[in-house]
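User: tokens in, sequence out, please.
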């Protein structure tokens, strides 16, 4: 796969999550689609587009399933950017950043 390392299915990653600000609404994501704040889209640095992940807020135990559709985040210590809908579901809108566990549950095929 072009030497790019991708986490195996089910391997957990721990770190901080943040969420997209309103300035990203309607902008093109790395997969070419436009960002919808009501979606279950997330940005991850390495997982293939279309991969389903389970994101768990370690502060309150809330979880949500999401789909990798963009690249990022590009802030040190952050491992995933969430749509505002997901951030609200996970109870992290007020603080903006929360410690999470990200587990791939359905790995998309990487394009050739």
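Assistant: Sequence out:
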């Amino acid at each position: 796969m072009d030497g790019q390392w991708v986490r195996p299915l089910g391997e957990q990653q721990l770190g901080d999550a943040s969420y997209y600000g309103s300035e990203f609404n309607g902008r093109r994501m790395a997969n070419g689609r436009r960002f919808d704040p009501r979606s279950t889209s997330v940005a991850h640095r390495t997982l293939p587009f279309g991969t389903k992940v389970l994101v768990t807020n370690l502060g309150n135990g809330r979880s949500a399933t999401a789909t990798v559709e963009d690249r990022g985040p590009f802030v040190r210590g952050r491992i995933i950017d969430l749509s505002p809908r997901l951030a609200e579901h996970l109870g992290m809108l007020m603080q903006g950043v929360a410690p999470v566990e990200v587990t791939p549950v359905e790995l998309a095929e990487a394009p050739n």
